[in-house]
Design brief:
- With about 300 residues, the chain is mainly beta.
- The protein folds into 2 domains: about 20-70 and about 165-300, no CATH class; about 75-160, PDZ domain (Pdz3 Domain).
- About 15% of the residues lie in helices and about 35% in strands.
- The strands form 5 sheets. Strands 1, 4, 5, 6, 7, 8 and 9 form a 7-stranded antiparallel β-sheet that branches. Strands 12, 13, 14, 17, 20 and 21 form a 6-stranded mixed β-sheet that branches.
- Strand 8 (about 140-150) and strand 9 form a beta hairpin.
- It is globular, with a radius of gyration of 24 Å.
- The protein starts with a strand and ends in a 7-residue tail after the last strand.
Length: about 300
C-alpha cells in the first residue's frame, strides 16, 4: 500500500546576526516572547556546535562564512494522509490532522475522495489529481466529492494558507568586502566586465530575481548587486528568489546555490536571474525546478575598469 503525506514541514535556520532589541520590546505576547528567546539560545548553541566541529578539523571560525536567503512564502496544508493505490475507487483518507482544512470541512478517516474539481479520479489520471492537491492556493476553494457510509457527498473547502516571512542567514565575515572582484590571474590591463542582479527580470517569461552567493569560490556581500570581474571565465553561484505565488513546495532546510559559468568580456554587463521550470515545480529535492541564467547582456557605454 502506497501512502502519501500532504503535511508540509518547514525547517528554518536563522543567522547569528539577530537583533536582540526586538526581543526586549512589548510588541509580542508572552508566549511569542518565550519562543523567540528560546530561538536565540538555539542559535547560540548551533554556532558553538559548528565551532567545535571546525576545531576538531583544525579550522578556525575566523574564516567561516555562510549565507543563504529564502523569500517569503505562503504554504497550504490540506492535512490528510491518502492511499492512492486503488485509484479506481478513489483516494482513501487514512488520517486527518486535527484542526486542519480537511477536518474543519468535514473530511473523515475512511472517506474516499472520488472526484476533485469536477473530475472523477481514475487510474489514468490519479497522478494529475494528486498533483492538484499539492498545488492549492490560499484564498481559493477546493471542491471534491467524497464517498462514505452516508453515500456520496460534495464538499467545497475554502483554502487558507500559513504565511512564513522571508529568511536571511548571514554568519561570519565575507572574504570579499567590496563590489570589485579581481581574477586570481593578473590581467594585462585593468579592463573588466560586470555581472548584475540589480534589475528585476520579466516574471512573465518565468524569470525571477536571484542573489549572488559566491564568485570563483569566494563568498560575497549579500547586499551587493553588481560585481566587476576581469575578462575571462568565472563561476558564479546564485540562489533563487522565486515568488511564493508559484506555489513551490520547497523542501525543508537550506536550499543550495547553483553554479553558472560565464565567459566575461570587457565592457559587457551580464544580468542574471533564476529561470523557473513550471513542468518541474514539484521537483524540489534537488532543485530541479530552476536554473541560473543570463537573461540580458548590455554593452557599457563607458570603459569598465577594475
Amino acid at each position: 500500500m502506497r501512502t502519501i503525506f500532504l503535511n508540509i514541514i518547514c525547517v528554518m535556520f536563522l543567522s547569528a546576526s539577530y537583533q536582540t532589541a526586538a526581543l526586549q520590546n512589548n510588541q509580542y505576547s508572552d508566549t511569542t516572547q518565550k519562543i523567540l528567546n528560546r530561538l536565540q539560545y538555539q542559535i547560540d548553541a548551533s554556532l558553538y556546535a559548528i565551532a567545535e566541529e571546525r576545531k576538531k578539523s583544525s579550522e578556525s571560525m575566523k574564516g567561516f562564512y555562510f549565507a543563504v536567503e529564502k523569500p517569503a512564502s505562503e504554504t497550504t496544508n490540506l492535512g490528510v494522509v491518502l492511499d492512492t493505490s486503488h485509484a479506481s475507487k478513489g483516494f482513501e483518507v487514512l488520517t486527518v490532522t486535527p484542526n486542519s482544512i480537511a477536518e474543519l470541512n468535514g473530511l473523515k478517516t475512511g472517506d474516499r475522495i472520488v472526484e476533485i474539481s469536477g473530475h472523477r479520479i481514475s487510474e489514468s489520471n490519479k497522478q494529475k489529481m494528486f498533483d492538484s492537491l499539492l498545488g492549492l492556493e490560499s484564498g481559493t476553494k477546493l471542491s471534491m466529492s467524497v464517498l462514505n457510509n452516508d453515500g456520496e457527498q460534495h464538499l467545497n473547502m475554502p483554502i487558507t494558507g500559513n504565511y512564513r516571512p522571508s529568511i536571511k542567514i548571514e554568519i561570519g565575515q565575507q572574504s570579499i568586502q567590496v563590489a570589485q572582484v579581481e581574477d586570481n590571474k593578473q590581467s594585462e590591463d585593468s579592463s573588466c566586465g560586470e555581472i548584475s542582479v540589480f534589475f528585476s527580470p520579466p516574471v512573465t517569461k518565468d524569470l525571477h530575481s536571484a542573489f549572488v552567493n559566491s564568485i570563483d569560490g569566494d563568498g560575497v556581500l549579500r547586499n551587493r548587486q553588481t560585481f566587476r570581474l576581469a575578462p575571462g571565465k568565472h563561476i558564479i553561484k546564485l540562489h533563487e528568489l522565486i515568488s511564493s505565488r508559484e506555489n513551490i513546495r520547497r523542501s525543508g532546510g537550506i536550499q543550495k546555490s547553483k553554479p553558472l559559468e560565464i565567459e566575461i568580456e570587457k565592457n559587457v554587463t551580464y544580468h542574471l536571474a533564476a529561470k523557473f521550470n513550471r513542468l518541474k515545480r514539484f521537483k524540489t529535492r534537488k532543485g530541479e525546478y530552476w536554473e541560473p541564467v543570463i537573461w540580458r547582456t548590455k554593452k557599457k557605454a563607458n570603459d569598465c575598469e577594475l
